Amino acid sequence: MQSSRNESSKSDGQYTFAKQGGPEVLEWVPLAEPHALGKDEVQIRHEAIGVEFIDTMMRSGAMQMQLPSGLGFSGVGRVESAGAEVSGVQTGDRVAYLCSTPGSYSSTRIVPAGRVYKLPDQGMSPQVAAGAIFRGLTAWYLANRITPLRKGDVVLVHAVAGGVGLLLLQWLKHLGATVVGTVESRNKVEVAKKYGCDHVVVTPDESFSAMVKEVSAGAGAKVVYESIGKATFEESIDAAARFGYIVSYGWPSGDPDPVPLGTLRTKSLFLTRPTVSQYVAADADFHEGAKCLFNLISAGKILVKYTEFPLEDAARAQQDLVDGKTTGSVVLVPKLDWS
After folding, report:
1. Structural domain of residue 74, as residue ranges?
2. Does residue 159 sit in the same domain as residue 234?
3. DSSP states of 252-263 as a string?
4. pLDDT at 336
5. Is residue 269 domain-shared with residue 154, that is, in the same domain?
6. I want to staple 74 with a disulfide (CB 3.0 to 4.6 A). Which of 111, 130, 134, 170 is the partner?
7. Please, are residues 140 and 289 in contact by the beta-carbon 8 Å criterion?
8. Model pLDDT for residues 37-48, shown as the tens digit of each residue
């Protein structure tokens, strides 16, 4: 494939942080002179960037990081140039990507071609695609790769009105599951119901375990999608059915206390702590998940709710996400449009 590169804008830059702390540690710095484009790399000018809760944990110090570091693992934009051996995408294509190295809070980025997915609907809103790619692939593996679900299976989804929660909810409903979801405030109840949640519980005011048992005639949830951590984990175990799955994929309230094997033995429970990076580590899995995700979005089976911030307001976007002020996904939009 012929490779060409547009001249970068003088305002090109990225957010980095040299020390961990509050959102104020984020610093906008000019992009360094990009390395020569590799034969299997793609340069993308961002139109929208996904903001994930893990970004805030990396920045705050909840996760250990090698500093200085960039932020963000996913984005959507137009291909500015592609390496000589890249196939399937070309200059001008709108693509989404997810890669393991942080650095998406930027105006432009070079990523491996294997981590790039050409959007089947080139007219899809960049904000929709950016709000979907990271969180949607998380929903994909949670709904499809942990354990098979049958129509009528009762499942519990924590933070059901959040970015992953709303996408996972819709995917589970597409598979025919009955969903009990938790939210942390009453103003998110209607959002959860609008997107298909069968039973919504406001925590900690109400018992989600009691609701699950009521809905399941005492059996419990086949799968508990545990994205809160320490604050809800003990009750999540109580809510699980015999042979049930506890899927611990988030921990904003802190790591759960160690679980004695005897606790799992009482109901022969399965406990797993998966990450999207493992489930899409192979390029083929990434592309399979992205295809399933964007096919469902194009078919109207999954709607992507998002809150949009200008890229220069990345600090405020992170703070609003941590404070629970957002519903659905959070995306950043750079000032400069593709031209």
Report:
1. 13-133+278-333
2. yes
3. TT-PPPP--HHH
4. 58
5. yes
6. 134
7. yes
8. 999 999 999 999
